[in-house]
Amino acid sequence: MATEGEKGQVKLLGATLSPFVVRVRIALALKGIDYEFIQESMHPKSELLVKSNPVHKKIPVLIHNGKPVCESMIIVQYIEEAWGNKAPNLMPEDPYDRAIARFWAAFVDDKLFPCLRGVFTGQGEQLQKAVEDSVTNFLLIEEALRTNHCFAGKAYFGGDQIGLIDIALGGLSAFIKGLEKATDSVLIDPEKMPLLSAWMDRFFKSDGVKEVMPDVAKQAEFISTRRASMISPPTAN
């Protein structure tokens, strides 16, 4: 449970549909940390956001005792270290397992998400290429779930409990499902990726996750609206 007065000490600047903000909200929920959620419209960006994250001016930003922490996975690891006495442990204790967790969390951000961004923005052949690249990366994750000793046969990447990789990938779950609906694409095929598909369904229903996970229909509607706004209207000949 949250300590007395904790809500005043912890603030989160974000937006409910942002998959990166969802990561942080999951970590806070799993740790039982009470906080004030400050919804950012981003248009315009608030003075507090610009002051708290002057380099990137992006969400999420966690403010703890007046000190801002930026970038979603840095925030998640900060939460684990700042509230290390609160269960569950989001990082493995073994140094090698911890390195593996960081590797796959980085894989999600450095390799997978750029492909998903391509699905979000792409049209025609560009969209198809981004879908294919995304599927290739999801297949690598499926293979890791099948063969890596850290994950194989376990409920989550973190073992019996949700851990760093689960949050890194799982925070994108509603976004991924929304992309599939909005673009009429299949990114995670249950027949080709049974382990990953089952993991995502299990993650979606987990305590601490289901309470903060965006509604997939709303996510798909948001994505469709944004995609439509990217298409330039035809010009007169």
Automatic annotation (TrEMBL):
Catalytic reactions on record: RX + glutathione = an S-substituted glutathione + a halide anion + H(+)
GST N-terminal domain segment(s): 8-87
Keyword Transferase on entry: yes
Keyword Transferase: yes
Keywords, sorted A to Z: Transferase
Domain GST C-terminal: 94-231
An annotated Gene Ontology molecular function: glutathione transferase activity
Name of one Pfam family that matches: GST_C
Enzyme class per UniProt: transferase
InterPro entries, alphabetized: Glutathione-S-Trfase_C-like (IPR010987), Glutathione-S-Trfase_C_sf (IPR036282), Glutathione_S-Trfase (IPR040079), Glutathione_S-Trfase_N (IPR004045), GST_C (IPR004046), GST_C_Tau (IPR045074), Omega/Tau-like (IPR045073), Thioredoxin-like_sf (IPR036249)
One Gene Ontology cellular component annotation held by this UniProt entry: cytoplasm
A GO biological process held by the record: toxin catabolic process
Entry EC number(s): 2.5.1.18
Entry similarity comment: Belongs to the GST superfamily. Tau family.
Protein name: glutathione transferase
Organism: Pinus densata
Origin organism lineage: Eukaryota, Viridiplantae, Streptophyta, Embryophyta, Tracheophyta
